[in-house]
Design brief:
homotetramer; 336 residues; UDP-N-acetylmuramoyl-L-alanine:D-glutamate ligase; globular; 5-dehydro-2-deoxygluconokinase (chains A, B, C, D)
Amino acid sequence: MKVEFSKNREFDIIAIGRACIDLNATEYNRPMEETMTFTKYVGGSPANIAIGSSKLGLNAGFIGKISDDQHGRFIQQYMNRMGVDTSNLIIDKEGHKTGLAFTEIKSPEECSILMYREDVADLYLAPSEIRESYLKRSSILLVSGTALSKSPSREAVLNAIQLAKRNHVLVIFELDYRPYTWKSREETSVYYSLVAEQSDVILGTRDEYDILENKPNGKNKDTIQYLFQHSPGLIVIKQGVEGSFAYTREGETYKGKAYPTEVLKTFGAGDSYASAFLYALIKGKGIESALKYGSASASIVVSKHSSSDAMPTVQEIEQFIREKESPLNESIHVKG
Amino acid sequence: MKVEFSKNREFDIIAIGRACIDLNATEYNRPMEETMTFTKYVGGSPANIAIGSSKLGLNAGFIGKISDDQHGRFIQQYMNRMGVDTSNLIIDKEGHKTGLAFTEIKSPEECSILMYREDVADLYLAPSEIRESYLKRSSILLVSGTALSKSPSREAVLNAIQLAKRNHVLVIFELDYRPYTWKSREETSVYYSLVAEQSDVILGTRDEYDILENKPNGKNKDTIQYLFQHSPGLIVIKQGVEGSFAYTREGETYKGKAYPTEVLKTFGAGDSYASAFLYALIKGKGIESALKYGSASASIVVSKHSSSDAMPTVQEIEQFIREKESPLNESIHVKG
Amino acid sequence: MKVEFSKNREFDIIAIGRACIDLNATEYNRPMEETMTFTKYVGGSPANIAIGSSKLGLNAGFIGKISDDQHGRFIQQYMNRMGVDTSNLIIDKEGHKTGLAFTEIKSPEECSILMYREDVADLYLAPSEIRESYLKRSSILLVSGTALSKSPSREAVLNAIQLAKRNHVLVIFELDYRPYTWKSREETSVYYSLVAEQSDVILGTRDEYDILENKPNGKNKDTIQYLFQHSPGLIVIKQGVEGSFAYTREGETYKGKAYPTEVLKTFGAGDSYASAFLYALIKGKGIESALKYGSASASIVVSKHSSSDAMPTVQEIEQFIREKESPLNESIHVKG
Amino acid sequence: MKVEFSKNREFDIIAIGRACIDLNATEYNRPMEETMTFTKYVGGSPANIAIGSSKLGLNAGFIGKISDDQHGRFIQQYMNRMGVDTSNLIIDKEGHKTGLAFTEIKSPEECSILMYREDVADLYLAPSEIRESYLKRSSILLVSGTALSKSPSREAVLNAIQLAKRNHVLVIFELDYRPYTWKSREETSVYYSLVAEQSDVILGTRDEYDILENKPNGKNKDTIQYLFQHSPGLIVIKQGVEGSFAYTREGETYKGKAYPTEVLKTFGAGDSYASAFLYALIKGKGIESALKYGSASASIVVSKHSSSDAMPTVQEIEQFIREKESPLNESIHVKG
């Protein structure tokens, strides 16, 4: 199966959704109550993916709304420094703040996040602020599920998807489910299924697909049977230590293994996976390789302190794969 | 062109959306400031269509949320008396009130409505309150655009549409655009186009299609070209005194003329049109006849004081058409 | 005891708070579900008191906020017709609606009200909209408790009281407790006691004083002991069929009897009581007479269909008292 | 003049209002955009005053509401460690977060704060959560103005004041004006003047008294003339480098000079002033000394990195005064 991109566009990928601030406990392996200092990073799934893509050499842009204060300016300056185009990053004029995530790392298995997401700027992106002229300059629109959790950001994203499809921009949906801000399971399922049905590629964990379908313990078989009746051509389902599966509309199944690594914390794994997976896809390396790139990138990030800053380069990923793959190739083409 | 219904279902039509109270000025032809008494009727586009359909002999049901007070109970009792199934009419338990519409009839040309739509019960219908087991008992799900204007009613309707499609229930979208409760033109367009793309039949005025497409002075030609790329098979565009047009995916165009009549007020025309149009369609009378039934029904209602109470019977409609049509048939099949 | 007014002011009384619309069931003695027509009146306690005072010949003004629609204009036109000064009646520019009260009269003992009070215009009166130059032209500022139930109306009233006291305008507090819009008993008690402590005269039912003190089954003795430590000089406590009591800071107690009458409904009794009581006080007739005037006025209104329209004239009240009082005077001066 | 306290109570002072988190830029003298790490402290004016008082050896308690998360628990643990009684610190059960203040120190003259105050736990303290049995165990109730900025915290504080006065607990009002969360100048003035009129002692800057009176460039003379008509017996007005003035109802005026010091940042000056001023007053040292203690304590805190952690001990304050005062006594008794 080949995912078809519109070629010769200025941007490989434009991500839409939240950009916020991570405040990572400088001291690890203790409850946050005992943490006295925090280190500041840019965070938020689609922001991380844009930054990660840019570090991999892709041309990346970002559509989002940031606060008109020091935190908002930090985000913009950092993205610029990382090479992400911020010409469509909108500055909120109604006093909304940047979202915050205080991370607590008690142990590699016990990580938690203390969120500040009340009336944050990113959820105030409005449908009238989406520019068709910007979207059509990209091969891919990457949509993050959390941006669907509240109006008017929800309508901004739905509008961006309509404009993307009209201009043959490939729509990639990173499920990125976070329970806060959603009102109910049913609400989430309504929008996740609406957007999934219109997307070309979907990336998510097995748990996230269960949210999409609003039923527990779903089977991959049922999920792909449902979704391939609609727009998607490629569906990636991540299943933790079991690795990840990629399914194509043509009936192919690919399995990618998770690389064992020294885990410091679990944050950022999904975003680094997505960046590297898409990089490989865009560069025409095929799905089998893309699964390896995604997995390697995730392994590198979970062994480091931040999510955005730790995004690896192509060299790091390929070096990591070489070390882990020899002599065994972990990705198996299950069914033709 | 033939619109295909699932046959042998218990209900011909289930309407979803608002049921509210009309308070019609008992004294006409004066400003409301000088009106001293008001007469109470059941109102709301989808409620009127369910009532109108039932009066025409169809089996009709209604999904909605009503207030737990005298106004809510009046709505339920009236619907029951009119033969509409109210088993899925949900009683609000959080104190939300029934919407009100005070109508002012200064002259046939100058009618206005004073709306009470703040936090009304009908907009609190939740996605978890939609029962698939009820929807699948119907041939048609009639969706009213206003129910999309606010959460959680919006998600309830989106959920109902997903369940309807899964169960081969024909989705008919009555655009029913009302500016209040919508936040912006862009927001309306996002949801109207989303739902239109998933519907089988769409009914609306030319102005309402402009709202759907979010551009002024749209052409029918462009509208149908856009929509026939998606699910719709039949599109009806009403253009006031110029009459109405019905377009089929197969390329047919039908024109229906508006019948001249003594107009008392303009309220209720769209709802009576929809009921009679759908009646004729369901009864297999063909699109040409359906346009006549719709037009005749609208003409009868605008000459009377209420919207729901004035819904005509089949005999009244057919008698009206006979009188108006002889000796000339006003509906012309434009293009095969 | 003599309540001292600033003399020679242009207005005898300025009332502040809500003016809204009563929709009274035209058909009585049945549930509202079966009522088909409603008659429209101006309503709201302080509006009724201003109208009642004006009908009694006092110079009355009104401070409030009304909707920018037909209902708002009706209120203003009606008040003007009744002689109430509306120069400080502010027209809401943010789309808030006039409050509505649908009244149901099942029997004289079973009356209920169906309220529309969600985001109503009267509760949006802002502290910046209170003009000291207007207040200082009056002898009395009449404050209605319901206007304290929500911001910014709450702050507008608190501001008006501060300005009134600075300008030696007598502050009269009509408790007028309505449970809707208040968040909790504690919240009500906080503001009722704050305002009561700053008022010169307080009028209310025994139940309303219990709300003020936030304890059940309060005793008049304790209530007046508490309140006479602060500003009040005259406290009137109404106890239904037992009649009403007036207490002065100097230690006098007056008892007024309720006049038996043919009751149609109970609405409007308190407002007509207040108007006539204050009329008598202003005219220097003494507390004993004021209790009679209040009681007579209330009896007249409860035997009629509306609250505002039914407000009696001085002649009607005095005629009523003459008929009821002969040969026995029902008001007894209990203790000197 | 002597401020009279109820003696022999368990607590010298109970403060009511917000306890939150300060995140102080670890790197100084640069814009926050370039700051990479933040150090965490307990913050919030009344929390700082309780902590400062406890460090000075007073028995201090605190009434407030904290988040049910790591930040809330940190606040409680820190207060306990500092000896502040937290038995009436309430844990929010509705998911509200702790307020945050990111401080930016560009230079001693250019300090700014980036606030997270949207729906914070401290503003959800409810009037029903105030316990009279706790308040009556204290000599002083210290009220912070910011707690009046929103319901239900506003009503909780108004309720606490009513209960304090009923139990002869001295009410001290620290104006602590912060523009955020207040809707308008008029709203602030309404509540500031209401509470000021009921307080026994008021502390604030000249600017804050202008907010209270809602007029620019107020004069101390007019301020004290207005306030001494009501409850206050002692009024302290701070005027930056000009020092501070203390006025008594008996007509005395005291002037305290500001001590020159090496300023790192300006945060925390008011809170440390209040703690030490009240300490001296409670210990019977007289107003003249209290002004010195307040001023010295403020000077010490502005030379250090945090607000709460930097609160000085009695020894530090007295040592500081000795150094600064010799040979000149800076506090002058202006008028007897």
